[in-house]
Design a protein that fits this description.
Blueprint (H helix, E strand, L loop, with lengths): L15 E7 L3 H16 L5 E7 L6 H11 L3 E5 L6 H11 L4 E4 L11 H10 L5 E6 L6 H19 L11 E4 H5 L11 H7 L4 E6 L14 H19 L3 H29 L8 H31 L24
Parallel strand pairs: 1-2, 1-4, 2-3, 5-7
Antiparallel strand pairs: 4-6, 5-6
Helix pairs in contact: 1-2, 5-8, 9-10
Length: 336
């Protein structure tokens, strides 16, 4: 297969960088890498393939090293231990040199022949920044994969405001500047399209092929759905309140504290005007508790505001992202 790859892929600055995180996928590596090389070699675009070994316990690292000897466009990265998919993707993004960065899984369930199709969409639509794959006909178990995934996709779309049918599809294409504005932590790789939209990227979705798993076993189970829900809470907070934490904590604090003040005011009226004993009433403890919690939440919001200024100002980190010029407009139907 290697002879079919054009000489253009040897350029120092390739146009396309393909990032593939792998963990214990030794049996899939050679057919996967060769399939990606064939698909991109036939598209006449210069490219590199960055395979990130996420601390595999099998011989994935050794196979990668051997494959890279005869494939000069293959750039293996070896993480010191198993950090997780988000960290592996971030390592690939940090080392990618292409104008466009493509991601896909290392289990051969994504079809590398779909990669040029995603690139064609970006070339034909300069106003689009992210092309996300949609596995219309999935070859996964219904109970443990498809049904939980359908629920998770609807939930993520509703919460983030970025409607996609398939957030879990690893096959995606990004314009490199979009990813340079993001940092992935924890399990945030699932929400990259939503995070990209938050910094101004325009996202579209296209159907892609999905194949049965040929080697190894899946690393995901039904527990992944519950992790998605937990991660989604953080994504929702960052999208709405990262740069204004006072609006999140202060708003709740004022609401709770206000209710507490009203309770204490009423009890004071009962004590002074009606002469009733309020010292043993549970309502008094509730009012005091709500006021204290409200004060603490407002103080937390103030600390959050201070931390945001510490984060941005000493190192010159801007609160915004500039474009190099006007965003291209989609072609009108009468112009096509």
């Amino acid at each position: 297969m290697n002879e079919a790859a054009p000489l253009a892929v040897q350029e120092a600055a390739p146009r396309v960088s393909v990032v593939i995180p792998v963990y214990d996928e030794a049996a899939s590596l050679e057919p996967l890498i060769d399939a990606v090389g064939t698909a991109l070699g036939s598209s006449s675009r210069s490219f590199e393939v960055i395979v990130v070994d996420d601390g595999s316990a099998d011989d994935s690292a050794e196979r990668l090293a051997a494959l890279s000897v005869s494939r000069r466009w293959l750039r293996p990265l070896y993480l010191n231990r198993n950090y997780g998919q988000s960290a592996a993707l971030q390592a690939g993004f940090d080392h990618a040199r292409g104008e466009i960065i493509v991601t896909l899984d290392g289990d051969l369930q994504n079809d590398p022949e779909d990669v040029p199709r995603l690139l064609d969409v970006l070339d034909a639509h300069p106003e689009v920044d992210v092309v996300s794959g949609w596995r219309v006909d999935r070859h996964d178990a219904a109970l443990t994969r498809r049904i939980p995934s359908r629920f998770a996709n609807r939930l993520v779309s509703r919460v983030t405001g970025v409607p996609l049918h398939d957030y879990g599809c690893a096959l995606k294409a990004y314009r490199a500047p979009v990813l340079k504005e993001l940092r992935l932590y924890g399990e945030m790789h699932r929400f990259v399209p939503a995070l990209a939209a938050e910094v101004g990227a325009r996202v579209v979705e296209v159907p892609v092929q999905h194949r049965p798993r040929a080697h190894g076993v899946s690393k995901y189970g039904i527990d992944r759905t519950f992790r998605v829900v937990l991660d989604l809470l953080w994504v929702r907070f960052t999208m709405r309140f990262l740069h204004r934490p006072m609006h999140a904590f202060g708003g709740v604090g004022l609401a709770l504290g206000g209710v507490g003040v009203l309770i204490l005011a009423w009890l004071t009226f009962e004590k002074l005007a009606l002469g009733r004993d309020i010292g043993t009433r549970p309502l008094l403890m509730l009012g005091v508790l709500l006021v204290l919690v409200g004060v603490q939440l407002v103080a937390t919001g103030l600390l959050g505001e201070i931390l945001m200024r510490v984060w941005h100002e000493p190192h010159g980190r801007a609160q915004y992202v500039l474009r190099s010029g006007p965003r291209p407009r989609p072609a009108r139907s009468e112009d096509r």
